[in-house]
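Hi Prof. W.,

I finally got the histidine kinase prediction working! I wasn't sure whether to trim anything, so I left the full sequence exactly as given:
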Amino acid sequence: MTAPVPGGADLPTIGVDELRTLFLFEALDDEQLTFLSGQGRVEAHPAGATVWAEGDDATCFYVLLSGTIALRGRVRGEDVEVTRTDQRGVYGGATQAYLGDRVPQTYRNSLTALTDAEFLVLPAQTFADVMRDWFPMAMHLLEGLFYGMRAAQNTVGERERLLALGQLSAGLTHELNNPAAAAVRATSVLRGRVAGMRQKLAMIADGRLDGRQLHRLVELQDEAVKRAADVPARTPLAISDAEDELSDWLDDHGITGGWDLAPTLVAGGVDTPWLDQITDAVGADNLEAAVRWLTYTIETELLMGEIEDAVTRISTLVSAAKQYSQLDRAPHQTVDVHELLDATLVMFNAKLPEGVRVEKHYDRTLPAIPAYAAELNQVWTNLIDNALGAMRDTGGTLTLRTGRVDEWLCVEVGDTGAGIPADVRPRIFEPFFTTKPVGEGTGLGLDISYRIVVKKHHGDIRVESAPGDTRFQVLLPLTAD
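And this is what came out:
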């Protein structure tokens, strides 16, 4: 089993005794260690050097002897750091060479030496032959584990993403439907009111009013628009009393259907002294046409206000969804975690169980931090979903809190549910471990969150739990490494 080692045969070798100090080889016998000593070579790489590049043919298996290294993957055209370590004996490179041609033998990521580093390097073919010859039973187990885990993770991961996307999409659709329906209804009514206003205008402008009266009526129309835009808040009882007063005034002045006009006039801030101005402006003969024309004016203004509110709400929801998905933004950017939290909350509006209220305690003095925004939103989604699930049957309080803990930015997601049992707590970040009923959870949410926070952002995620008080704390570095 021989193969050339990149870098040439004049590279230094490694002794049997030193090989035995590496955890990967500590159980091998002297003959096996002697063989590896003859096949392997020591390579030195200066700080900043690329040891191997993602996508290149995987020709070598590397074991770290000294130094600090960083493993990076390519995501949407950017290098994303997966992990960094200085642990002697960690390995990488052609780790799947034993699978042969069944799996593309290329480097799946890039390795960079952050400091001067030394590696034991074995040719990929040598590593593959050693695995097959020395550990035949382990080979079968590893192959089964590799293909089985890959299939399971692909299937379950896709299902997890689809379920989360479906739930959030359903919630967003529900949230968008209400203002969209309100805008459609208001637009339909508005069309009829504008048509009525044109008819009334034709009646009062057919020569029965002189120029001075018509000019005064237009002034009253402008004033009605201003009143409708600035109506003070009133109690239901005050509104009812005002409607009765206006209805009586309209009846007393011979205007038919006063009870139907009064609510619109009150909603537009009209009172009886203002109606008296209409009488003074156009006279009793033209009063009903003028009042109805001005009522249509007020109603159209109110309807346009409804449409504006509905469209603003739709725009806000779309903006929140855009912030949540981060579709048009760079993967790594400087972000305000409060904006990310608020965008995630909007996505959960329709999923809030009955009896659950939300409290936010934000420290607005916190600076923006460098982060992978879309992936942090996935963390908030997982934590908030778990918190809401813990309170689904009992109700309670979902609390979002931000603050500074030493040199970390801390985001805390708390709930008042039953809590996490002590015997379960050590396992909650394990892949595929879940306490949810069969079919309701995959056990990947917290595992994914842990990898995003710890592995990708070099932060930490902690949990404190007691009945009625469970808190997940996500600690993120305030500055880039």
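The longest strand covers residues 396-405. Does that look reasonable to you?

Thanks,
D.
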